[in-house]
Amino acid sequence: MLISLALNLLGVVLFLFLFWRRLKEDYSREIVFGSAFLILLGVVIGFWLSTSFFPNWIFWFEAFGAFLGFSWGVFKYSLRFFEAFEASFLGLLPWLALFFVTKVIYVSMAILVLIVLFIYLNAKYKNFAWYKSGRIGVAGLLTAGVFFVGRASLAIFNPTMVSFAGRSEIILSAISAFTIFLLVYNLAKG
């Protein structure tokens, strides 16, 4: 319990740092940390709701809470959606990796691979022939899409491994991945 609490605290600090680092040049410190607080509030409310009422859906309640907090921050502080999404997803990945260290180590390793993928995509996205717009956000979206494709794929073979949502995991992860890749397509066109 104490190790899990320490890892979660470290994850929150890493989230705050990475979120701030990605957005510090475009937004004031108050805006960055205000929107980060809303995301964290969403995660905490999602955690509380899931553990109190729907313990098998903890990932999805936390993810939905984070998305609601993110959306509230985007509207409240007039953040650019794709830039803020990329910063928040990048910030949440290390926290997720630390969360799984004590539970399923190879999931943590897969998340670390996603972080490396993000770093690569972030460095090279302007050179992609199919990505003519050159706008920020594609690295975060592609990494998020791969994350959800991975969850859906893992859920096909072992539906209780990724989370405890069972077969619903396949559908929810596939819909999330499809939506994200649709956003990538629209971002590439625009």
Automatic annotation (TrEMBL):
Keyword annotations of the record: Membrane, Transmembrane, Transmembrane helix
Q: Where are the transmembrane segments?
A: 6-23, 30-51, 57-74, 104-123, 135-158, 170-188
Q: Please report the name of this protein according to its UniProt entry.
A: Uncharacterized protein
